[in-house]
Design brief:
disordered N terminus, single chain, 435 residues
Length: 435
């Protein structure tokens, strides 16, 4: 533990005596000046994202596959006149849906559709559907809607599978009247197969837009309930391996996140500065307790109120302020270098090092206890923001559970796992009553 902290309590007592000697008015001016300096900081313009949600395709694809297995999407196919062949019962069945990267701000659904003659797969149609996600705002926050339907299609390119004409020819030959089997020249069968292939890639596929693709779009549409932060603007993009949603808030954030890195699990990243400003915003809007007594108990008539800051380049980046603004004037600021992790469902937050950086008179609250209390509250609130992420695919709602947590390089990173949401489940509150 650094020397600055070891001598912190005696130094604080000395400051108290000096402050008392200089008069209450002078002390109140010092406290007011410190509060003003904290509240008048200016947000960095042109900064990177404050919050980033990354959803790897590898996590989404198995969920889509499970849905298709549980509820197959099949529709009948119209067949053109093919001479004597009675090929009347073809059907199309969606067998695969994958999420892939796409140009600009789109996301691609790659689908594979089996064309079946009874129980026999005749050929396949592959379609790539580029859609633009939409941000939907409501009273509860914001959701990202990703799905396809007739209005959402950006581009569709049907492709017949390899060897399609030969297999279509075999199917046509199977449906010739028994008296003609083996009598019709293969050249005529191949011509009929070419006509059918052209139909499947053209008119029949166009008809699938309003039948199979509507059902498939409804089944596989997914929505992401974003972390509950004040959104100024957002960006949605796809990398080679994931959907990335980046949010810039309208708070006084002074440093955003670093570059996107490949993640094997769904993650929510929050810059340390954004986490501090979100905590302050929640205090100011009474979403978490604002007032505390000298025993760190939340109470409406308490004399003390906390505030936070985060300076990533500092050796003690998290700044915890405690202001006494009722029944006297005092404050202290402690810089903290911390570590976080998850043990089961519990978030662990540890102050590895701390430094009493400023004080004006004795606020009565013991500094070490305040550091432990508000460090846990600050990180736990960030964890709850991450856990607010919710994924819905089709009619299945999935809640996020935080499985990993890390504080490094001025950024908080939370790894998520999704599970089917319990009916009527309510969002858990923070484990500590602090922000």
């Amino acid at each position: 533990m650094p020397t600055a902290y070891r001598v912190g309590v005696p130094r604080l007592a000395l400051v108290c005596l000096l402050a008392i000697g200089s008069g209450c008015g002078s002390r109140c001016k010092q406290v007011a000046s410190a509060r003003d300096a904290l509240s008048t900081r200016v947000a960095a313009t042109g900064r990177t994202a404050d919050v980033r949600v990354t959803l790897p395709f590898a996590q989404i694809d198995p969920l889509l596959a499970d849905l298709l297995r549980a509820a197959p999407v099949t529709v009948p196919l119209d067949v053109p006149e093919l001479g004597p062949a009675a090929l009347e019962h073809l059907r199309a069945t969606a067998t695969e849906v994958h999420v892939e990267s796409a140009p600009r701000d789109a996301i691609r659904f790659a689908t594979r559709i089996a064309v079946q003659d009874g129980d026999t797969d005749v050929t396949t149609l592959a379609a790539e559907i580029d859609v633009k996600p939409r941000l939907v705002r409501d009273a509860g926050g914001a959701e990202l809607a990703i799905g396809f339907g007739p209005k959402d299609l950006v581009s569709v390119h049907p492709v017949l599978g390899a060897g399609a004409k030969a297999r279509l020819g075999d199917a046509i030959a199977r449906h010739l009247p028994e008296r003609l089997r083996g009598q019709v020249p293969r050249m005529l069968v191949d011509q009929a197969a070419g006509k059918l292939a052209e139909h499947l890639g053209g008119a029949a596929f166009e008809a699938l837009r309003d039948t199979l693709f509507v059902k498939l779009g409804e089944l596989t549409a997914w929505r992401v309930r974003l972390p509950d932060v004040p959104i100024a603007h957002h960006e949605i993009r796809s990398t080679e391996s994931a959907v990335v949603i980046e949010i810039v808030s309208d708070l006084r954030v002074r440093r955003g996140l670093g570059p996107t890195r490949a993640r094997g699990e769904p993650t929510v990243e929050i810059s340390g500065s954004a986490a501090a400003e979100l905590a302050n915003w929640m205090i100011e809007h009474d979403h978490v307790p604002r007032w505390y007594d000298d025993g760190l108990r939340p109470t409406r008539d308490g004399a003390f109120t906390p505030r936070f800051d985060f300076v990533a380049t500092d050796s003690h980046p998290l700044k915890i302020y405690m202001f006494q603004v009722r029944g006297g004037c005092s404050y202290f600021r402690v810089g903290v270098r911390g570590s976080i992790g998850v043990q089961g469902e519990r978030l662990d937050a540890v102050a590895l090092d701390r430094d009493l950086e400023a004080a004006s008179a004795n606020p009565l609250i013991e500094v070490a206890a305040a550091v432990k209390y508000f460090l846990l509250g600050w990180t736990d609130q960030a964890k709850q923001i991450a856990a607010h992420t919710r994924l819905s695919i089709g009619k299945n709602a999935l809640d996020a559970r935080v499985t990993t947590a890390n504080l490094e390089g001025g950024e908080l990173r939370f790894g998520l796992a999704f599970a089917v949401a319990a009916e009527h489940a309510s969002s858990p509150g923070p484990t500590a009553p602090a922000p």
